Amino acid sequence: MQPAVGLFHSESVSRTIHSRDTAFGILHTAIRLGWVLWLVIVCHCTLSAAVQSKTIAGREVVSLPDVSSHLGMRMRWVEKGERISISNKWTSIDIRGKERHILINNIKISLGRPVLFYRNQLHIDTLDWHFSLLPILTPQQFKPSKPGPIKTIVIDPGHGGKDPGAVDKRTGLQEKNLTLDVSKRIQQHLTRAGYRVVLTRENDTFIALEDRTIIANRHKADLFLSIHFNSHADGSAQGIETFAFTLINHPSTARSTPVKSDRLHAEANRHDPWNALLGYHLQNRLIRGLSEKDRGLKRARFTVLRDIRCPAALIELGFVSHPETARKLQNANYRGQLAQNVAQGVIDYAGRIHEIR
């Protein structure tokens, strides 16, 4: 029996979910024109007829029993009223009430709004269901809006020139040097894999955030990655996190409620499903390949992502302020491992897109 959910193209054969051509045509038009309200309505009516939205406490949500049924997966309470598991042979989803993230195969996925407990059932926001979970679990449902083949990849080494980024005074590490080194290594891996790879900067120069976007769009990028490293006053902060652009009408992960800018449509929102799928594959490879702390797939309205005309993600590859991480980052072999896992995440994503197409 084929899986109801296929996350990894190397592990399973995804079940193609067929829908009416007219419904998919409407969805494609909605995405292309950026009519977000229409898009949500169409998704509600056509993509998940088995998952009916309802309004609870002013929120449009879907129940997890309906989600489980739609995916053809088994749901069970791990802790009654607190935590459920939805699973099959290939995939496990762990969900806790009141939390603002879930785990998909033990990889943390941030949600726009907390999981809601109502009348003895857990519910998630409809937008989270359509644009954070479905693209990862069954991306074939978004076939009318599927990206083209991945040919050109633009990699953006963060900071540069007068902007050093994060700095660790103990070791002398500067983010701008780390991002350039790792980006060049990623470029080598992906070039060998047959992709055309462009860097937004190839030396220690300053480039404005908006100009990085312009470079990617000028090269007609099929995929964009912005490479960064983190820092925090609390030296114990550690781990790797990947960011996709925030969904419209949802707050970014760092905030609990939306602000005015969250109501605005950006070019990046045209690729919401694919941003999530790309971000998941990157985070999955990095966490499984390096055994680092999983800080999750998150959402943010970063300037460098806002106007990109292709699926995109920003990766924070560790904290230079964390002593053990800083020690590892001084080692070229470890930086090579970071680059190899980022490249493999891209290849995983590209393979998934190829399957869908």
Topology summary:
Layout: H1 21-33, H2 36-47, E1 54-56, E2 59-63, H3 64-71, E3 74-79, E4 83-87, E5 92-96, E6 101-104, E7 107-110, E8 116-118, E9 121-125, H4 126-137, E10 152-157, E11 167-168, E12 173-174, H5 175-192, E13 196-199, H6 209-218, E14 223-230, E15 240-244, H7 272-290, E16 294-299, H8 303-306, E17 312-319, H9 323-329, H10 332-356
Parallel strand pairs: 10-13, 10-14, 14-17, 15-16
Antiparallel strand pairs: 1-2, 2-9, 3-4, 4-5, 5-6, 6-7, 8-9, 11-12, 15-17
Helix pairs in contact: 1-2, 4-7, 5-10, 7-10
Give a description of the structure.
With 357 residues, the chain is α+β, with helices and mostly antiparallel strands. The protein folds into two domains: 21-145, Copper amine oxidase-like, N-terminal domain (Copper Amine Oxidase, Chain A, domain 1, 2-Layer Sandwich); 152-356, Aminopeptidase, CATH 3.40.630.40. Helices cover 36% and strands 23% of the residues. The chain contains ten helices and 17 strands. It has helices at 21-33, 36-47, 64-71, 126-137, 175-192, 209-218, 272-290, 303-306, 323-329, 332-356, and strands at 54-56, 59-63, 74-79, 83-87, 92-96, 101-104, 107-110, 116-118, 121-125, 152-157, 167-168, 173-174, 196-199, 223-230, 240-244, 294-299, 312-319. Strands 13-10-14-17-15-16 form a six-stranded mixed beta sheet, sandwiched between helices. A five-stranded antiparallel beta sheet has the order 3-4-5-6-7. Strands 1-2-9-8 form a four-stranded antiparallel beta sheet. Helix 7 (272-290) links the parallel strand 15 (240-244) and strand 16. Helix 1 runs antiparallel to helix 2. It is globular and about 55 Å long. The two termini are 22 Å apart. Residues 1-5 and 8-49 have low confidence and may be disordered.
